[in-house]
Design a protein that fits this description.
The protein is of the alpha/beta class. Helices cover 40% and strands 15% of the residues. Strands 1-2-3 form a three-stranded parallel β-sheet, covered by helices on one side. The two termini are 18 Å apart. Keywords: Phosphoprotein. Pfam families: Response_reg.
Length: 117
Amino acid sequence: MSLYIKELTEKNNIEVTSHFFENGLDALEGLKEHKGNPGKLPDLILLDINMPIMNGWQFLEEYRKIKKDLIKNTVIYLISSSNNIVDINRAKEYQEEVKDYFMKPVSMEDITRIFLN
């Protein structure tokens, strides 16, 4: 979780335990490693589209392949600096996996919608 989001959650007394992955491949490997342990799987993922090694779209394609093996359903939110209609429409192709699409910078209202709903 970015420092900005961490500050927003702390400032507003939203308790969050977070794990940060530098890229989509590391995040995917973390999910695979703990696929049978619900206590180690995340409740939600804040997924950036632009990441090194494996971007958000590639992550979602691979996630689709493994989600049936995960013992816990995880909610995914896309977080992006892109207001490109192509990206917004592409996110809709992942309606089963992606709950919502948020633009950077993420606002306190966005954080509330993500963590308290």
